[in-house]
Amino acid sequence: MINLQQLTVLLAVREHGSLTKAAEAMQYGVPTVTHHLNTLERHLKVRLVERDRRGATLTPLGTAFAEEAEQILRRVGQAERLVAEQREAGLVTLRVGTFASIGSRLLPSAIAELQERVRVRVEVIEAEPTEVVRLLLAGEVHAGLIYEAEDDPAFVSAELAVVPLLVEPYRVMLSRNSALAARDVLDFAQLDGEAWIHSRNDDEASDRVLKKTFSLVGRQPRELMRTDDLNMIHGLVAQGLGLALSTETAVDTRFDVTLRPAVQDLGKRRVSFITLNRAVPPAVTLLERLLKERTAGTGSA
Question: Where are the domains of the chain?
């Protein structure tokens, strides 16, 4: 069977034109070089090297075989470097859970820079924060982006390491063409007739903030529908069919919507990078740093 050492010896003989000089360059003894060449020739059943007093030269078949061997060794070297880089990154595939609004803005450029630095494949799984946390605890993702109300965090656990990235005030998202858009500030006491778009999960931060705010004015929010589809939410609001709670970075400017503050304190939404509270692969740590760089100075925590 051919091995890489035999190919390396053949290329060394081609380069140095002598078994002795090839042996010196490889820090082998001449008998070792001779052994590898003889074994290779017996396997191929051809003579690859002509030896005489002047040195050693490759036969035509030896030259042709050496060219192929050179390509093989180059590819093996590339494969070894790839494995080494991935080993240093700590992962072959990095799986990240994220919600749509921030994930689409922060992750693409961060992932692109990450992959320039380390060879790691990245899979992004879109899900709401509650699901992202579940995936992380189940070992199905290595890290995630979540949001929660700053003054009422939903994901406090000894198992989670939570790194705040961005803090923004909640606002009411409404159609630019609605009568409410003429107001600078909205009062929830006057919004009990409006329909609201809710998350599918009652525990999501926006729904908890909405219910808490309405309770302060002795009202209950009227539900238009439940969805976590960001395009659907924007489309419904743009058509004036309902209102939603949002933040500035979550607004899709392709839709004819706007934000308004409220008389009541809606609090702030905190976006965080989360991992399990234990040692993580270097690629995860690097991604965290890249995300922190991208949120620095933009309402960052």
Answer: 4-88, 95-163+270-295, 171-266
